[in-house]
Design a protein that fits this description.
Elements (H helix, E strand, L loop, with lengths): L1 H6 L4 H10 L9 H8 L4 H26 L10 H18 L7 H17 L3 H15 L7 H29 L9 E2 L2 E5 L1 H20 L5 E4 L6 E3 L1 H23 L9 E7 L4 E6 L7 H4 L13 H4 L17 H11 L15
Parallel strand pairs: 3-5
Antiparallel strand pairs: 1-2, 2-4, 5-6
Helix pairs in contact: 2-4, 4-5, 4-6, 4-8, 5-6, 5-7, 6-8, 8-13, 9-10, 10-13
Length: about 350
């Protein structure tokens, strides 16, 4: 009933157009291409970029809106998921309101529209996570079947697509910055220091840990602070933040009633011939073998479900240490977006 009521707020012609655009093939864009194209943000290039996004964003957003209507186990009917679906339909309508982008005036107006779309979708991840938690609360926890696998596969596609959409919008918008920071091309820092990003992300994670527990273990970072490579610093910050946050929680909870001083979290940044490796280790007790295969699913968390303690928890209004179960799988998607990966090795009784 809720789904029917929500969909009636959108015209049949809009829904038909969404399904039409959802059949088109999307175009991949590499980090190297974005760096090379964005190195000269001339009016001509900005116009070309906006014309590309006018079509590409419509395709990507339409695909996700269609998928949001077809999820198993009644997930599509959950209030949080309906809210996300409406955001995608609204954004598709905003983009298609432009019949064509012919000149720089059109380009500027279109850029403002996609900036607003990016803001509208800020809370998509926690809102979808809320929808999954609403589903978990309504079903028998012993029921694990192929529908859950389908939900996990959808969420991987959905969140990876969201990363791509936000990367394309953010890159285009940042190319309008009249005073970009040195060595920065749009969203891409051509000389990003992983040690510096790790330090900032760790400080942010420790602040949240202190707010929740009253204290936080130290974080020790090892690596060459002068080493840099081209990457999106916001992506690396998110990954390190999530991993350090998990480590801080594990250590803090393991030692909170102990006379021993909490051991520090260790971060090692290694510059290899073919890749850059960042290792984060702790002594928080590790994860049991039975739990390791679940940690990258969206239906699992070692923390309590936030809805168990806060039935009226607002979507996107609170930053918690854990509980929604999307920190690790989302971080792995960010790592994989530009060809990397995230691996967890655990020693039960010690840490990881």
């Amino acid at each position: 009933m809720a789904a029917k009521k929500a969909i009636e707020t959108f015209s049949k012609s809009l829904i038909d157009e969404v399904h039409k655009w959802g059949c088109f093939k999307q175009t991949g864009v590499s980090l190297r291409y974005m760096m090379e194209f964005g190195s000269k943000p001339t009016q001509k290039n900005l116009l070309i970029s906006s014309q590309f996004l006018h079509k590409e964003l419509a395709i990507r957003i339409a695909r996700r809106a269609i998928e949001l209507e077809r999820l198993p186990c009644g997930l599509s009917q959950k209030p949080a998921v309906l809210k996300v679906r409406d955001w995608y339909l609204d954004s598709f309508r905003d983009i298609r309101s432009f019949s064509e982008i012919k000149n720089m005036n059109d380009e500027k107006e279109f850029t403002e529209v996609i900036k607003a779309i990016k803001v509208r979708h800020n809370n998509v991840v926690p809102t979808m996570a809320m929808g999954v938690q609403q589903l978990k609360k309504d079903i028998n926890p012993k029921i694990i079947n192929e529908d859950f696998v389908e939900i996990h596969q959808f969420l991987d596609r959905f969140y990876m697509s969201r990363i791509g959409i936000r990367m394309l919008i953010g890159q285009h918008v940042e190319l309008h910055n009249p005073n970009p920071r040195p060595h920065v091309v749009g969203y891409i820092d051509t000389r990003m220091s992983p040690v510096e990003v790790a330090r900032n992300a760790s400080d942010d994670a420790r602040s949240i840990c202190c707010r929740q527990y009253g204290s936080a273990p130290d974080v020790h970072i090892y690596g060459d602070p002068d080493f840099t490579f081209p990457y999106v610093s916001a992506h690396l910050h998110l990954m390190v933040f999530e991993l350090v946050k998990n480590s801080l929680r594990a250590v803090e909870e393991r030692y909170m009633n102990s006379d021993k001083v909490s051991p520090p979290i260790r971060i090692i940044v290694a510059d290899g011939i073919e890749d850059v490796t960042i290792k984060i280790s702790d002594e928080g007790g590790g994860i049991p073998r039975s739990g390791l295969r679940k940690i990258f699913t969206y239906l699992y968390s070692t923390a309590r479900n936030p809805l168990d303690e806060h039935d009226d928890l607002g979507v996107g209004d609170n930053v918690t240490m854990a509980g929604y179960g999307y920190g690790l799988p989302i971080s792995r998607l960010y790592a994989r977006y530009f060809g990397g990966d995230l691996q967890i090795i655990s020693m039960e009784g010690y840490g990881e």
